[in-house]
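Section 5: illustrative case.
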């Protein structure tokens, strides 16, 4: 019924086929929350008895449940539709930032079940051991049968399978075995990714149920640095060493500001949250008795009509628009999805961003392009860590297809 990838040395086990079929159906139910058994028979070509067998197993395991459809019945009694039991499988997620870490557990729908925060510590070993303790505290009570693993996000270049950080300039981390420290003594499976890539993954994985997920879009993270995650034809663009699409380090000004990456004039030095806050301080001056406002505070001041805050947002929006024009020229995306301060202040900044973009990009391309604030706001990367774990679990079904 299903083609599965097995090495020539692996025995073809019935359990492999059964697991692949089960995940195929689970994935279908996840993506189409109003499917009936008859729909599955029609779509897959599986026999009705096979579908019934697999569905009964999944119901018994608590993975799915059946309830009357909200669709009107054409004839006879109301059909039953299948839905995932969201808390049947749990994933943990860790987001590491320059200000600390957030650790969560979440269900299949991305609902956060529990969370902890770990404050930043300059000594990376002390910090990472505290993060490890927080992961253990949130996951120790979970049944290993239901717990799928831990996703970890970092702002930088990270080896996807081992979790070794190659370079995270804004954390000051280079060649650190983050994966080894976090997973020490744990039997859970760990997955690692870059924050912008995971923001893009969250946007696609946790889209509105039943809606068409975005296929070609760029997700923009705006924090200490500026990261971009590029999804082309539904796949993340990672590159040979996972460093593809570092648009934050493309040059905006040849003689611009010095960037932690070693170059000058990088886009992130003008459009990241750090750049926005620095620009405000430079324009205002920094008397010692007045605290430096963060991006949320600058947006709040702008909403209250503060001319300095409005001017700083307008100037930064111009830099964002130039970068978006570059992204548009390279990828011709259907959408650029923005997170962080730009998502919070989207109503204030969108016209300025569009003006800068329109003055640089061809109108025929802009007719297609949408600029969208992230659906997940400040949780986008964190939900991306959960999506990373879930997508790995469902991957075997996504790669499997009913045999011809
Ligand atoms: Zn740079």
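Designed sequence:
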């Amino acid at each position: 019924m299903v083609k599965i990838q097995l090495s020539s040395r692996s025995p073809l086990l019935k359990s492999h086929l059964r697991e692949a079929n089960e995940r195929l159906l689970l994935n279908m139910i996840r993506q189409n929350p109003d499917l009936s058994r008859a729909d599955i028979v029609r779509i897959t070509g599986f026999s009705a008895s096979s579908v019934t067998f697999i569905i009964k197993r999944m119901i018994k395991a608590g993975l799915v449940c059946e309830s009357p459809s909200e669709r009107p019945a054409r004839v006879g009694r109301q059909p039953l539709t299948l839905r995932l039991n969201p808390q049947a499988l749990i994933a943990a997620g860790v987001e590491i930032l320059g200000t600390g870490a957030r650790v969560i557990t979440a269900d299949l729908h991305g609902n956060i079940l529990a969370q902890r925060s770990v404050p930043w510590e300059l000594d990376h070993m002390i910090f990472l051991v505290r993060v490890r303790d927080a992961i253990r505290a949130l996951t120790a009570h979970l049944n290993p049968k239901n717990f799928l693993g831990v996703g970890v996000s970092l702002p930088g270049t990270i080896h996807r399978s081992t979790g070794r950080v190659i370079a995270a300039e804004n954390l000051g981390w280079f060649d650190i075995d983050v994966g080894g420290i976090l997973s020490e003594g744990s039997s859970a499976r760990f997955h690692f990714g870059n924050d912008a890539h995971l923001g893009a993954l969250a946007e696609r994985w946790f889209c509105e149920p039943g809606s068409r997920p975005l296929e070609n879009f760029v997700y923009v993270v705006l924090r200490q640095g500026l990261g971009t995650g590029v999804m082309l034809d539904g796949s993340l663009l990672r590159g040979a060493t996972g460093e593809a699409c570092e648009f934050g380090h493309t040059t905006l000004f040849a003689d611009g500001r010095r960037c932690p990456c070693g170059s000058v004039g990088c886009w992130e030095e003008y459009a990241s949250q750090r750049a926005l806050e620095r620009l405000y301080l430079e324009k205002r001056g920094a008397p010692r008795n007045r605290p430096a406002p963060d991006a949320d505070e600058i947006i709040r001041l702008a909403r209250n009509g503060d001319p300095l805050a409005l001017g700083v947002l307008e100037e930064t929006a111009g830099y964002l628009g130039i970068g978006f024009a570059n992204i548009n020229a390279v990828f011709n995306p259907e959408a650029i999805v923005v997170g962080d301060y730009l998502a919070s202040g989207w109503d204030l900044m969108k016209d300025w961003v569009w003006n800068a973009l329109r003055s640089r990009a061809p109108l025929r391309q802009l007719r297609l392009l949408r600029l969208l604030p992230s659906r997940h706001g400040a949780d986008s990367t964190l939900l991306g860590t959960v999506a990373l774990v879930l997508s790995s679990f469902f991957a075997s079904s996504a790669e499997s297809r009913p045999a011809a």
